[in-house]
Amino acid sequence: MRYGFFLYWSILKFSEVIRMGQLEGKTAVVTGGGTGIGRASAVRLAAEGAHVFVTGRRETELAAAVEAIGSATAVPGDISDPADLDRLYDAVRTRGRGLDVLFANAATASFVRLEQTTEEHFDETFGVNTRGTLFTVQKALPLLNEGASVILNASTAADNGAAAFGTYAASKAAVRSFARTWANELKDRGVRVNAISPGPIDTPGITGLVGEGQADAFRASLVAGVPIGRMGRPDEVAAVVAFLASDQSSYVIGANLYVDGGENQI
C-alpha cells in the first residue's frame, strides 16, 4: 500500500515537471506580435510558461493574437515612436517582475531599387528596423533581469544581395551588428544577446510585400532557392526563439542562428 502511494505521488510530481515549460514564471516582450513570426513566437513563449507582452501597430490583429497566445497582454504601438515604447515598458514595469525575454521582431519591408529609393523610404525602413530596434532594447535595459535573453530578428536578406531589397537588407545588417556589440556590452550583467536570420518564411507579410495576385508566384520563386524544397513555417522560427530565450542556450552569445532551410548554408 505504501509503495502504491509513493508510486502515485511520484507520477503526479513527474507530470508537474513535464507540464512546466522552460520559461515558467518568466516575463517576455515580443514586438510585431500580431501576426507571422512574432505571433508564433509569442504563442510558443507562452506555451513554455512565460507571460507575454505583445505590441504592434494593428489593434485588431493584436487582440486576435492575445486570444491565440493565452497568457498575454497587448500594448498597441509603433516601435519607431519612443512614446509607444515607453507605454509598453510601463506596462511591463507594472507587472513587477522585470523582463526575462525580449524578442525585437518588428520590422517593415518593401521592394525599391536603388534608382527609385527616396528619403522617405530610407527613413521609414531604418526608422523601424534599425532605430526602432535600438530603442526597443535600450528602453528595456532597466527592466532586464539577470540571465535575461535578448533576441534580435535579422534576416538572410543581409547576406544574399536580392535586387530591390537593398535598404531593407542594410537595415538588417545593422541589426546583426547590434547583436554582436550589445552581447559584448551586456555580458557582465548576465544578459545574453543573439540574433536570428529567417529565410523565406510563409507569413501574411508575403502578400503585403508583393500583392495578392503575385503572392503564389513569389513563393514559388523563393522555394526555388531553398535546398530543403519549401518555405519555412512561423512556428519553426518560434522554436529557435524559444531555444534562445531559455537556459538551453546558456552558452550561446552574440550568435546569429539561420532559420533558412539551408538557403545560405548549402
TrEMBL record:
SUPFAM superfamilies: NAD(P)-binding Rossmann-fold domains (SSF51735). Residues 26-199 form the Ketoreductase domain. PROSITE patterns: ADH_SHORT. Keywords: Oxidoreductase. It comes from the Bacteria. Pfam families: adh_short_C2 (PF13561). PANTHER family: 3-OXOACYL-[ACYL-CARRIER-PROTEIN] REDUCTASE, SHORT-CHAIN DEHYDROGENASES/REDUCTASES FAMILY MEMBER. Belongs to the short-chain dehydrogenases/reductases (SDR) family. This is SDR family oxidoreductase.
